[in-house]
Structure formats: C-alpha cells, structure tokens
Amino acid sequence: MRTRLRRLVVTALALFTAAGSLPAAAAGATDRQENPSNGGLSAVIRYTEYGIPHILAENYADLGFGEGWAQAADEVCTLAEGFVTLRGERSRHFGADAVADGELSAARTNLTSDLYFRGVRESRTVEKLLTEPAPVGPSREVRDMMRGWAAGYNAWLKQNKITDPACAGASWIRPVTELDVAVRGYAVAVISGEGRFVDTIATAQPPSGSATAVGSAASRTPGVKAVATAARELWGTGDMGSNAVAFRGDTTANGRGLLLGNPHYPWEGGRRFWQSQQTIPGELNVSGGTLLGLPTISIGFNAHVAWSHTVSTGIPANFHQLTLDPADPTTYLVDGKPERMTKRSVTVPLKDGTSVTRTQWWTRYGPVVTSLSPQVPLPWTTTHAYALYDPNAANLRFADTSLGFGKARSTDDVLKALARHQGIPWVNTLAADRAGHSLFTQSQVVPRITDELAARCSTELGRTTYPASGIAILDGSRGDCALGSDPDAVTPGILGLSRMPTLKDAPYVENSNGTPWMTNADQPITGYERIFGTVGTELGLRTRGGIEDVAAMAERGDLTVRDLERQQFANRVPAGDLAAEDVARACAALPGGTATGSDGKAVDVSQACEVIKAWDRTMDTGSRGALLFDRFWRKLPPSGLWKVPFSAADPVRTPNTLNTDAPGFATALADAVAELRAAGISLDAQLGAHQFVVRGGERVPVPGGSGRLGVWNVLEPTWNAAGGGYTEVPFGSSHLQAVSWDGSSCPVARTLLTYSQSSNPNSPHYSDQTRLFSGERWVTSRFCEKDILSSPKLTVVRVSEQR
C-alpha cells in the first residue's frame, strides 16, 4: 500500500502546477511542505477546479489529518466558532445574553447553549460513548480519523495565518482534541432531539410556593392541537430539508442506477456542507459532501454506489410523564418506588470574568423539560413533570455508518452498514448502484415506540398527541412501559432495522421530506409504526411535484445524468401549475380591477392579472411574474385553500382547484401588489433582479423558490423590500450531486456546492460555485486518478504535522 501511495504521489508531483485553485491560506504553505513528515501524520491533497480537494493517505489517521487540514483552510472561522459553542464558552467570548448562532442547537442565547454543552462535557457523556466497543461505540478507523482530523486542524492553525476577517486575530481560536471532534459529531446527532430543547433543559426548575397551584397557567395541560403544531415546528423542515430520487436500471439508458441528491441546509454557519474526495489506496475511495467538522463523507458516491439523505418525518424523541413524590418534586416514582433525579450543577464563565451556575435535572429517561415551545408548556408541578428521551444522546455511530456507505459496493451493502451501525439520526437514505438497484429506507434512530406500546402506555395527553403528531407521551411511573429492546437493534430503546419503512428496487424512489408512504406512488409503503410518519394523509406540494416529475421520467425511460441535471434546475412551480390560471381568471373578474388589502385600502390589481397569466410558472432568474406569485401565495390563508379536497385514493393530484371565492383571495392579491409597489418593484420584474446574493460587492442572481410553492430547487431567501426584494439566502439547495456509472471504473457524476467551498471572502473559492449555481451549471466530478491528474487547475500540497 505504501509503495502504491508513493507511486501516486510521484505521478501527482510530476504534474504539479504552481498556479491553481488552492485555498488562499493554504497557498502560502505550498513551498514549505516539500516532504511528508517521517514521524507525524501527513497526507497529500490534490486540489482541482473550484478548490475541491482530493485527499490521498496511507491510513485512516493520515486521511483524517488531510481532511482536518483542508477543512480548516476553507472554513477555519466557522469551525473555530463551532468549537467555542461545543466547549460551552460562547458567554465568555460573545456575551451571555447574545443570540446563539443556532447552528449546533436551537439555543436562543449563548448562556443556555453553554449550560447545555458544558453539562455534556462535565457529565463525560461523549467520553463514555468513546469507550464503548464497536458497533455501539466508534470503530478504530473512525477513532483514528477523529484523532487525525484534530491533528490536521491544529497543524493548519500552527502553520498558517488566518486571512478571513470574520476571525482573524480572535482570541477564541484554539487547538482542538479528538474529544472536540467527537462532541461535534454528538451535537449533529442530537440536533433534532435534545438539541431542540436546550433552552428548557438548561432552565427547568422544580416548583415552589403557590406558582404551581392547580388551575394556574403554569400547570395547565397543553391541548393536542397546540402539541401537534409545536411538533411540526420542532420536527418540520424549516431549517433542514432535502429532495432525493434514485432510479432503477430499467428506467435508465444503460441499465445502471441513477441518483440525484438535493439537500436543503443553511448557507452559513456550522451546518454547511464541504466537498472532498477521500482515498486510501486499496481500502477506501469515496467522494462527496460532509458536514463541517465531521471526518467522514456524509453524502456521496464511489465507483459502485451513490447515496443521499433527506430529513425524515420520524419523531426522534419522546416524553415520559413522571409521577412525583408528594413530599419532593425532585423524586419520581416507578412502580411505586422512589427514584431521585440527578442534579447537575453547571457553571459557565462570563465575559466580565464572573460566572453563573445553574442546575439541570436528569432522570433515567433523560432531562426534565418544561415546554415543547414557548407557547406550549409541559409544566413541572408538585405532582407531575416531563422527561425527554433522545436515543441519539447515546449515538456516536453516524461516522461509522457513513464510512460503511463509502466502502459499499451495492445498495445491499448500504443496508448492511445500516444494520451493523444503525447510526443515522434524523434522515432517510436513498441510494442507487452501478448494477441498477434502487433503495429507500427510513432507517434512522428513533425511540422504540410501537403503536401497541403507545396504546397501552400513553398518558391522557399522549393518547391524542401520538396519532395526531407521532409524539409519544408515556407513563413514566410504570415499569412495564419501558421501551424495551428489538433483537435487531444495536442498542436497547430504539426500533430495529426490520421495522424501518424500506422499499427496494422500485423503478424510482423519491423523497421530499414527506411520509415514507408515497416514496413511490405505485408501490405505497404501509404497515410501519406511527412514529415514522403517516399513511393516507395529504402530501406537501414539493412531494406532489417531485413524484409527478420523477414518475414521468421513469415512465419515459432512457434516463441519463443529463436528465437529473434538468430536473434539478427545472424550477417548476407546482402551486403555479395548480392555481395560476385560476388566479389570473379570478383577478380579471374583480370589479373595476381592484381589490381591498388587509389595511382596508383599495388596490388596482389589473396589471397583476396579466402578469400572472403570462408567467411561465417557473422560478428561473429570468422569470417574470414569479416574484409576484410567490409573494401572493405566501399571503393566502391556508385554510379553505382548495375546492377539491384531498383524497387518499388520488394523493398526488388532490387537493386541487384554488378557492378564489374565499375572502382571503382578493386580500392576498391586493397585499402582494401593494407590497411590491411600495418597494419600487415592477410586478413583472425578473426574479433574479430581486432574488440574489451579494459576493464581492456584486449581486449574483440565484434561481429556485420556496418549498411551500412545491419548487424542487428550494431557496428560502430573506425578504427585504428596502434592499431590493429577496436578498441573502440563509437556507436552500446546498451540496448537489447527480450520479451514474458507465462501463468504466469511474462514476459519471456532476456536483455543485451552491454556496462554494469557503466562507472566507478573500478565498478564490468564496463564490465561484455560487456563480455556477446562478447560471444553472454543474461541476464535472474528477474521481479517477487520470481525471484528477489531468485537471488544468491541479495543485498538489503535501501537508504534515512538522514544518
């Protein structure tokens, strides 16, 4: 292996070019890194177009080293701030009352973020998981990658000057350890469980005095409707989402599988994707996107298989209602026997040199929480409290699961990796392989909540919340209501792989964050537990539009990667296809061409009728009428929207026929027209003139639209009328990949990282792929050695721990 690695390095160096697309901070390191260290960790990084690194190493520790180095070169400020978060030091550096960054938890303030993450550190939660033997704990390969990643990040800090103005000269940038890297993986795993409840975990306190008297506001039980609404807000796709589709070989031009991945993630901060290829000759060769700070490829492909993830409808946590000892609200009863809560006192240092200490309360089930949201309390009274169970709080298996995908040679191997590690925390997996197989599976870590257990053990509130929202609230006072263990589960308390909604080898499998039921309209998945999602319920417009598109593609057949590229940037608006004609007709019928806005003022909407009628029903940057329809659609009341109701017998085409007779219709139209005119925006303005990002002082128009419109290429920009309409994009399409295979050993792949590799405005890779996204263009992946070494932008960097 070492001989082969040296041969590859010699070949690469023979083609070394001093010019190229090297990250700005790493460019200065080229000349001084002539030879890998003989004693420490080292790797060879070959940069090709758009600053994409192809990391070549002899072993997993060296591979992690190269990954940590290259991520630091592009994203040191984002990574460093994340490590401040994970150490519980945001209050010390940025102020306790300041708004938290929101990227590694849902904490609203730095103080609550610090209280949670310092509690994780002081309880040694992650250290204990690291000591567990695989597969419960991480494998030796993953431990080596984490150790190597930390060493690579530290070596980059030591050997380079930070040029990113976001953190240049910052005192809070420090070296990291393997534990820091592991805690980052832990935070990603719990981000949809405990991470959603950081504020209430950090602040829940036992009752005292008359504040908890029966009938007081604090003791009222929340209603099922409020709980269901809170569940949608907590576990919906507001800050994470995705589309993906995999096609079976008999739908494609050459009998190979096809996969299109389109995750929707934040464009800034710690949940950005970052691209690389990881190669250990003879052991591993995988390319794709990874979430920053993680050592393994999160979404990607190799010579045999490609996979992507979509945020699932599964509920990743549940609640246990505690029956308390009447004499002590910090003692709860299980089968009549008292158990004292565990009291954790956590101290957080503050910016002024003082500190604050708060107490957290933990039970056998997990932490005590006192709300689902600010509007939905779960009151801690003298008789009852609620504890949160998040099984991902014992899950460091995501990296091993991803590494298993990277080594897979088929979709069956993807399932085997899931069966062995069961580490996917809150997403579905879709995959295709070169033999023509397709796969969908909602194999994620969820509590072992069966419908039978929920029926037998739900509290009064839980008997309504579970069917309505999938949130189980169990009677924590009964030992027979313990979650138990499935024989095929990696650990107790979670559902085993055999219970996971799965569909193999369908002509297509598609998911747009909808229920697994409609993964394929001709082969509905049924029979799964309610915690995974619903069956026979109304689909979102993005799911409906996605199924329409991909089912038609599968029916047409002879598909290639080019068809996937077109699907990604079709920018079709299903809401427009359903409603635009009716809107234009009803608009034209308004008396005098006017409508009354919500402020009671009459608005001339006659021009809007013609604009919407002429609109091409896309969200392309050149589309005229898209902006008007988008603003109108957002203002429509959701209730009573359609004349033809949903039918489970025709879920993709119902509901339909916009109810233009509803009183909210004309009001929404008037408000949208008035809003655009007040902002000085023409009703028929091109979308790209008012939906853009600013890079280097230049407006870069970006295509795509809101998921609520059903658009596949999701963008959720920020509305700023004074700034020109939609401006900066905080969330949307991120790491795109369209993958297939031919008769060679090289995948046929196109990729695109919409926001580019680096957040550093001084980097040449701060906006280069964003400009490609603006023009709806892709990057041809360089996977095989011959393609990497023939890149006209090839730059080779040998990095090591020693200067």
TrEMBL record:
Keywords: Hydrolase, Signal, Zymogen
Record InterPro entries: Ntn_hydrolases_N, Penicillin_amidase_A-knob, Penicillin_amidase_dom1, Penicillin_amidase_N_B-knob, S45
Family annotation (Pfam families): Penicil_amidase
Top-rank taxon, per record: Bacteria
UniProt signal peptide: 1-26
Protein family: Belongs to the peptidase S45 family.
Name of the protein this chain belongs to: Penicillin acylase family protein
